[in-house]
Amino acid sequence: MPNNRPSNPGRPNPPAQPNRPARPQPARPQPPRPQPPRPQPARPTPPQAGRPGNRPRPIAQPQPPRGNQFWHRGRYYSRIRGPAFAYPPGYQYRRWSIGVRLPPVLIAPSFYYTGWAALGLQQPLPGYSWVRFGPDLLLVNLTTYEVEDVVYGVFQ
After folding, report:
1. What tens digit of pLDDT does each residue of 13-28 get?
2. Within the chain, how many helices (H) and strands (E) appear?
3. Closest CA to 116 of 85, 92, 80, 90
4. For residues 135 and 154, what is the distance between their CA atoms, to the nearest angstrom?
């Protein structure tokens, strides 16, 4: 009587005819794949009737300066004619940026600018002052001499 028990209990018995090639299966027709929908061209939405608050607001894009204006923090300001700026000895125009420390020679009352309200700029907090350097205004911390804000091209 032949022994039909597997030699290894965890494995199935080997096939009866191990060298016989597998029979080819007929090809099954594949169902067509669903195509993603084609993007439609965007159509402008007609304006909604009713109150103006129902319409979406257009996104404001900064425009290039118009004539005698400069752009600062989301709005335009008018440039002003100020007295000619006299640079300290050994200095010429430099474009300062926020976080830079100014040399002490530039933190002098002769460089302070008190006409910030006429430009529509914010009042400096105690311990800060607007300092003019060439055509630019710098908001400076007077204890650390760090530039907190910059407005480029205020003066002509």
Report:
1. 655 555 666 677 777 7
2. 1, 5
3. 80
4. 6
Flag residues of the chain having pLDDT under 70: 1-22, 44-80
Q: How far is CA 30 from the centre of its chain?
A: 48
* Cα distance between residue 106 and residue 112, in whole Å: 9
Chain centre to alpha carbon of residue 82: 34
Q: Give dist(CA 141, CA 128) in Å, integer.
A: 5
Contacting residues for 117 by C-beta, under 8 A, at least 6 apart: 123
Answer whether 0.70 is exceeded by the pTM.
no
SS3 assignment, position 91: coil
